[in-house]
Design goal:
- The structure is a homodimer of 357-residue chains.
- Chain A has 357 residues and is an alpha/beta fold.
- Helices cover 32% and strands 23% of the residues of chain A.
- The first copy, chain A, contains twelve helices and 15 strands.
- An eight-stranded mixed beta sheet of chain A has the order 9-8-7-10-6-11-15-14, with helices on both faces.
- In chain A, strand 7, helix 9 and strand 8 form a beta-alpha-beta unit.
- Chain A is elongated.
- Chain A starts with a helix and ends in a 5-residue tail after the last strand.
- At the A-B interface, strand 11, strand 12, strand 13, strand 14 and strand 15 of A face strand 11, strand 12, strand 13, strand 14 and strand 15 of B.
Chain lengths: 357, 357
């Protein structure tokens, strides 16, 4: 007689491994899908792989449908009946730009659905379970949930708050002096610069202060050896300035081929309002701050930053511009879930500004 | 017929491995031997291990004699004739507190000596080779030389310059604010604090400014879970102050059981002169700076720092005291030979301020 415990345990591990396999596919869509989440899916019938897919970009089929199409293309259409679908996020159950995935799942006769994270969107939350179970489909959520949740953090935050996930990125010397973009090419190594451009690739918008436009005349585009995936647009380039008149009209962001991707906000005090607008109107899920010390301080004090990415270059600079201006920050802040990595001679420290994820 | 090339190559690798084995022993003496260098030695006869040893502290036998005594204690006295001695530093050839090791090597009939680094001391440099070879002993220096040289860096520097090797150590938040010792117990984790105390264990003296004595009232001793090896003294505690009158007489460094290990220098401008005195008079080979931003800046600008150890705690502090005071450091400095390590939630970045070692 088989031990039911052993069977359950084996199935739980297999389920987790397959959701993680789906998560690896989801990563291929990172930075491409806003305002939708990047999602991955795989289909198995017992131990046999039938197909897999991920959501490529908004307006295109969801991961579940991509996986179903892949199974068909592989000639496994007849096997879908009775198979199991593994997906990183609860399948959608309402009509958006595409029909609901729950319907497709029912239509092809899938008998079991295993997913990572419950969709926080009020239109979907938990509905998939009810819809699918009513059709006799077994549903299990919360598998490999932490990994899926960590990966979907920006999107989950945006759905919950209506504002983008905000990443503050800065380059600094060991003594906490800012490395401005112009100097970064001398100070930071190639590997660290590539990292910054990959970070831009995962962002929907980059926000800078007017001073950065005047001082550095940055392009704020994805380049530097980072391949632009097909269909990926350059990020929105958002400028906060006291007065538009202070900005040079011949700046690159106003004159280059992506100039329609540049937005200027004048004299903003309601940062939160702009964040809402960036999410609602421009579909921004992840916003990258490339700030000097003054704006960074202000955003930290208003608690508008979710993630911190600091490139530390092994120089003692003694420069004039502090990474964080002024003294006596109202609240000392701690980083959580810290990851560090060496890139050439530079170090990148990345962490969250809030303990809960 | 054996290939002489293959034989040579095998011997070279074996030689290197054995000098590295001796180096591992040398490490046991780190911080214990000043003004002598920490040295290790092993003795083999072909593939048979006969004995090993390291220099424990000044006034006690050198590593070579410790290894010979170990071989005798193991009952291998009769095998020493015809054996090979591996040692990290060129054996000494003059009478110091102990008789020259070259004589002991000759006396027991060792037939081959392999060592790492040539002794830069003018009394010894290269003399061992001549003395030993005159007795028909084969001598090979420069084996595993880089590893031995890196390890002996502080002592080699002190012999060359007559001044201690200077390590600047500082605790900082991500935004380059100093973490003073009093706060460090809140900010830095236990693992990082242990690292600092192990660093003190490897140092012969700790130098602080008067302000640190007034503000932090530090003990500047080795503790915090770091075991004091037998015979190790607490480091010299050296204070630079504008006026002795500014120092509180009831400060710990003046009143605790190690108060005879506290030295005060008033109104010093000739830093180099004090460094010489610390080396010549107090036998200081490694000096640890635990400075605030003002003195650190001054020592950097005068190019008196050899090594940089920065503990970065994952906080955004916004504190009032910069790791490095003021702006426009005369010369931007770069770190070389960088090592980083995570200690709990903190990171330690360690590197050299001069490219050559």
């Amino acid at each position: 007689m088989k031990s039911p415990f052993k069977t359950d345990k084996a199935q739980a591990l297999r389920d987790e491994a397959r959701v993680l396999q789906a998560l690896d596919l989801a990563r291929l869509g990172l930075g491409m899908t806003s305002p939708n989440p990047p999602v991955g899916a795989v289909i198995y019938k017992e131990d046999r792989f039938l197909g897999s897919g991920y959501h490529h970009r908004a307006g295109e089929p969801h991961a579940e449908r991509m996986a179903l199409a892949d199974a068909l293309a592989r000639g496994h259409g007849d096997d879908l009946k009775g198979s199991t679908l593994y997906v990183t996020l609860e399948p959608c159950s309402s009509y958006g730009k595409t029909p609901p995935c729950t319907q497709a799942i029912i239509d092809v006769g899938i008998k079991r659905v295993v997913y990572g994270v419950v969709d926080p969107d009020a239109r979907h939350r938990g509905r998939a379970n009810a819809l699918l179970e009513a059709e006799g489909i077994e549903v299990q959520g919360g598998v490999a949930e932490k990994a899926c949740r960590d990966f979907l953090r920006p999107w989950l935050h945006a759905v919950r708050t209506g504002c983008p996930w905000v990443i503050a990125k800065m380059g600094a010397t060991l003594d906490g002096r800012i490395v401005r973009w112009g100097n970064q090419h001398q100070i930071s190594g190639r590997e660290a610069l590539e990292y910054v451009h990959r970070l831009r690739l995962q962002s929907d918008a980059i926000l800078v202060g007017g001073r950065t436009v005047r001082t550095d005349n940055p392009q704020l585009t994805i380049r530097f050896g980072v391949e632009m995936p097909e269909g990926k647009k350059q990020p929105w380039r958002v400028v906060f300035t006291q007065s538009v008149k202070n900005l040079p009209l011949d700046a690159r962001i106003f004159t280059d081929e992506y100039s329609e991707r540049t937005l200027v906000y004048e004299c903003v005090d309601d940062f939160q309002g702009v964040l809402h607008e960036l999410h609602e109107k421009y579909g921004v899920v992840t916003l990258l701050l490339e700030f000097g010390g003054h704006l960074l301080r202000e955003w930290l004090e208003r608690d508008l930053v979710q993630e911190w990415v600091q490139i530390i270059s092994p120089y003692i600079g003694g420069g004039n511009e502090l990474l964080l201006s002024g003294n006596d920050l109202k609240t000392e802040r701690q980083l959580f879930d810290i990851r560090t990595q060496q890139f050439g001679k530079d170090f990148i420290i990345r962490g969250l500004l809030h303990g809960e994820s």
